[in-house]
Amino acid sequence: RRALEIVVRTLEKLGHEVVEWKPPSHKRLGEICFKTWFYDGGADFREAFGLSGEPAAPQVAAPSEGTQVNATEIAAVNVERREAQKEYMEYWNSTKDQTSTGRPVDALICPLAPFPAARPQKYTYYGYSTFVNVLDYTSVVVPVTTVDQNVDKVDEGFKPMDDTDKSVHDAYDPEIYDGAHVAVQLVGRRFQEEKMLALAEFVGEAVKG
After folding, report:
1. Model-wide pTM > 0.70
2. Distance in angstroms (rounded) separating the CA atoms of residues 2 and 148
3. 121-129 LR contacts (CB < 8 Å, sep 24+)
4. Neighbours of 50 (CB within 10 A)
5. Tens digits of residue pLDDT in 131-155
6. By the number of CB atoms within 10 A of the CB, which of 52, 87, 111, 147 ranks highest?
7. Residues in a beta bridge with 142
8. Exposed, middle or buried by CB within 10 Å (0-12, 13-18, 19+), for 126?
9. Cα gap 122→187, rounded to integer Å
10. Residue 138: C-alpha distances to residues 40, 154, 187 (Å)
């Protein structure tokens, strides 16, 4: 949260506009993504691990035990994905009504993960990255700061939205994460790789400055 605030304050100080992002449901995008992950019921996963006999980590072993879905089910997910992409595109286009230029926003500033680094078996939320995959958008990560245990304390008044939200929040430990690097993700639209790299360079230099 502090990294996001640093980026926002820096950009506003340089004269750029920052608007609050209120998009269509990211939970829906996550659900679509999870469906695609399990199309083959874990067959490829089991084959790969079978080559070495290496045991799978618990967080990936359990979901790999399903059955393969058929072509009709895959087609239905593809339709759902296209509908979600269209809905999100229309929302992004609508942000032109919130900017002084009359143009949609250039990029979305958000986390890539809800923590500075993943701890074993504690990566319980993927939504900050999976929504980018489902929409086929462009993303680049920019380093911002490091955790300071004297500043980045546990939010005692935090009210979780659901069990996943609670588990993510409860996993935060200022002492363990002290000194860990924190970055933000800049998300652009499809086929905007060069634009996003330019924005990343601009934002990165501005934050350092």
Report:
1. yes
2. 10
3. 121/57, 121/58, 121/59, 122/167, 122/171, 123/59, 124/164, 124/167, 124/168, 124/171, 125/164, 125/165, 125/168, 126/30, 126/33, 127/26, 127/27, 127/29, 127/30, 128/185, 129/185
4. 9
5. 999 999 999 999 999 999 999 999 9
6. 147
7. 184
8. middle
9. 25
10. 26, 32, 6
pLDDT per residue over 21-58, tens digit each? 999 999 999 999 989 988 988 888 888 888 998 888 87
The owner of tokens 């900050």 is: 128
Please give the Cα distance from 189 to 109 (Å, whole number).
Answer: 13
Per-residue tokens: 91: 């929302």
Tokens for 18? 């920052």
